[in-house]
Design goal:
Blueprint lengths: L6 H16 L1 E8 L10 H17 L5 E6 L8 E4 L3 H11 L6 H23 L4 H14 L11 H6 L4 E7 L16 E8 L1 H4 L10 E9 L7 H19 L6
Parallel strand pairs: 2-4, 4-5
Antiparallel strand pairs: 1-6, 2-3, 5-6
Helix pairs in contact: 2-3, 2-4, 2-8, 3-4
Organism: Cinclus mexicanus (American dipper)
InterPro entries: Carn_acyl_trans, CAT-like_dom_sf, Cho/carn_acyl_trans
GO biological process, one term: carnitine metabolic process, CoA-linked
Length: about 250
């Protein structure tokens, strides 16, 4: 029951939401995954692969975030996980080198994955920097004090302009995860991890499970193309899967 005072605002919000939905383009695809080589580190391999794919699509890395639940230390709250830039960049450049040997590529992949897992454990234990910085900023605003200089630095603005916002979930039903972009020239990437038993338990045909990837971007931005980034992601998944075939990161 909506009264006459709030009804116009509800209609305005509906039109705004419809306009936002109309401005989002989605590209989805399925992938077989990395095989047994990735083992329990599949989520970390995916995040590293997304960095490499963005590098291939745009020629550089970007500020990236993935929300993680802090239920172990602060139930009901989340923090942001950033991928490790230097090892991901080293791997991206090496994958573009036709003379790079598989042994070197595997070493670089392992280093990037281990750095990613180390960052994840730091965030999950409540030692990530993002929420601490957020609270510092809020405390200054509440006290009506000048913002600490870090928040006025152009580097901080660039570091928090998340052109890539990702989400990974293991789904029993093999759902498609839609994550919207956070900035006008950004992407949202949702990756659903599907185990063989989750695809269709009643289907007698063999199924290896895999990944379901959904890439989103704003259609009004000429510098982003979800199909282009999606193609880069699929290509990097193929390359890393071939690299890990018969090998292991453990």
């Amino acid at each position: 029951s909506v009264g006459p005072e709030i009804a116009p605002e509800v209609e305005r919000a509906k039109r705004h939401l419809d306009s936002l939905a109309a401005d989002v383009e989605v590209h989805c695809f399925e992938h077989d995954g990395f095989g047994e080589g990735a083992g329990p580190r599949c989520e970390a391999v995916v995040q590293v692969a997304l960095q490499v794919a963005f590098y291939r699509a745009h020629g550089s890395l970007c500020a990236t975030c993935e929300p993680l639940s802090l239920r172990q230390v602060l139930p009901g709250c989340t923090d942001l996980l950033r991928p490790p830039g230097p090892p991901c960049l080293a791997l991206a450049r090496a994958l573009d080198d036709p003379d790079a040997q598989p042994e070197l590529l595997l070493v670089l992949l392992r280093e990037a994955v281990e750095a990613q897992e180390s960052h994840a454990q730091e965030v999950l234990s409540g030692r990530g920097p993002e929420r601490h910085l957020q609270r510092l900023r809020e405390a200054a605003l509440e006290a009506r004090e000048p913002l600490p200089e870090i928040f006025l630095d152009p580097g901080y603005a660039q570091a928090t302009h998340f052109r890539l916002c990702t989400l990974q979930v293991r789904s029993r039903e093999g759902s498609w995860l839609l994550r919207g972009p956070l900035v006008p020239d950004g992407y949202g990437v949702g990756v659903g991890h599907v185990s063989p038993a989750q695809v269709n338990p009643k289907d007698p045909s063999p199924n290896r499970g895999g990944l379901r990837v959904a890439v989103t971007a704003f259609t009004c931005c000429s510098s982003t193309d979800p199909a282009h980034l999606g193609g880069a992601i699929s290509g990097v998944f193929d390359r890393l899967g071939a690299l890990l075939r018969g090998r292991s990161l453990t």
